[in-house]
Design goal:
Layout lengths: L5 E4 L2 E4 L3 H15 L9 E4 L1 H9 L1 H8 L3 E4 L2 H10 L10 H15 L3 E3 L4 H14 L6 E3 L18
Parallel strand pairs: 3-4, 5-6
Antiparallel strand pairs: 1-2
């Protein structure tokens, strides 16, 4: 985890920030990482299902504990923090909301980002929607170049 403030909910160190702060955090990291040998920010989120899976499987738990930031993508985690934690979570940081906050800040800061993990059709649809909503047509990059001609991952690494 980074030096962000965290509160422990359901055994997981949840980053204490709202959607705007989370987006700002990710964009700031991207800007400071430009041109230097700095790892990308590992950001993920947790909800009740993730808490349950982590409680039952130490390997899954270790994956979430490796994250630089772990957001509460579930209102039950926010409510639990308010009932049981000294440091309360300000709000749910759902990925479906966070992408919009991030896109607005990215547009202002001249930062692009990628849609990863979807089909080429879904990538294209997402890009069309963002290009219609934002003034910069180069803001959203697509992940599909990674998967053409048997390529996997950044730099075109091949599966063994």
């Amino acid at each position: 985890m980074t030096a962000q403030t965290v509160t422990t909910v359901g055994g997981l160190p949840i980053t204490v920030e709202d959607c705007e702060g989370a987006a700002r955090h990710m964009i700031d990291h991207a800007i400071t990482a430009r041109g230097v040998d700095k790892l990308p920010l590992y950001s993920t989120s947790a909800n009740g299902q993730v808490v349950s899976m982590c409680a039952l499987d130490v390997e899954i738990l270790s994956l979430f504990l490796e994250a630089d930031i772990l957001h509460a993508d579930g209102e039950p985690l926010v409510r639990a923090s308010r009932l049981m934690c000294k440091t309360k979570l300000p709000e749910r940081v759902a990925t479906t909301d966070l992408v919009h906050f991030t896109a607005r800040i990215a547009e202002k800061e001249g930062v692009s980002f990628y849609f990863l993990g979807a089909s080429e059709e879904a990538d294209q649809q997402g890009r069309r929607e963002y290009e219609a909503a934002l003034s910069r047509s180069d803001l959203c990059r697509l992940s599909q170049w990674l998967f053409r001609q048997g390529r996997r991952g950044c730099g075109g690494c091949r599966d063994q």
